[in-house]
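Issue 218. Parser rejects a valid record. Input:
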Amino acid sequence: MMRLANIYRLGVKELWSLWRDPFMLVLITWTFTFMIYIVGSAMPEALLKVPISIADEDDSPLSTRIVSAFYPPQFMAPVPVRLSEIDAGLDSGNYTFSLDIPPYFQRDVLAGRSPSIQLNVDATRMSQAFTGAGYVQQIVLDEVNSFVQRYRTNTVLPVDLEIRARFNPNLTHAWFGAVMELMNMVIMLSVVLAGAALIREREHGTIEHLLAMPVTPGEIMLGKIWSMGLVVLVASTLSLQFIVKGALGVPIEGSVLLFMLLTALLLFSTTSMGIFMATIVRSMPQFGLLMMLVVMPMLMLSGGVTPRESMPALARNFMEIAPSSHFVAAAQAILYRGAGFAVVWPQILALVIIGVVFFWASLAYFRKSISQMV
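Output the parser choked on:
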């Protein structure tokens, strides 16, 4: 009971220390509110108001139909330009696409000569260039085919493909982006808060005061783990309810309590990792550089950015020892597909095992570093 009381009081001390750190409070508030909202709402679902210019050198009924086929909201109203102005418009960034319809285009189409239309793309605008080039090609082909056939028709294919998108019927980007950003913030903030708590003790000289008290390194470490983990757990739960589900309107299919349990198990691992990293470095700048080498690859290879099945076998197998990959897989199953404990128990078991290993490794190194300070 005395050990539990020490752990509780040490954790309360960390909470008061965090409360007196305005920078950390602003960081927590920003990441779990504005950051998640921006990621979930800033990226459009498809093309939206893409600037395009068209050099119509043919000035025929067919070229006029092609020009009028580009309209909002996918494209802005096409800007008529001369052929000599295309390069300057792309160089200045005024247009993402520039279409050049050559002279005698309609005549060559009707004569069956297969003329070419030049499409210039500003590939520095990656998302618009990749998706929009296919849009432009399809629009031009549809207008040419309907002009040649004298009427618009839908091609009847021998096989009718019925597409049913489960769990996200409208393929809404915000449903994916907001939840994944929440998971990334949970991982990153838990490492930052736990590591910063230990570094703050060292920089303020209070770690020596703790060593003079009747507390063990394990109690010091557990006090930081439960307090910083509690902060991230409460912040992520509130963000899930009021930002993801409330402001962004993302439906949560599964149990929030099960997600909280999963998050708590992850926090046991990541806070231990943060303390381990803080014992290696000697200052916050060094801790920030180490985070870039450790946490950023964890986030990129966890399966939230790209499916783990598409990664190289070496990276996929290596990430089995990282808690982030199991957390992302289970959280996606719970929040997107409404999975229960019977489905995600392998990931929960993996998080428990990884958490215990990380905790004991961090505790061993923490004891070693403490003993060298005495």
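Fixed in the parser; the record now loads. The CA atoms of residues 165 and 171 lie 7 Å apart.
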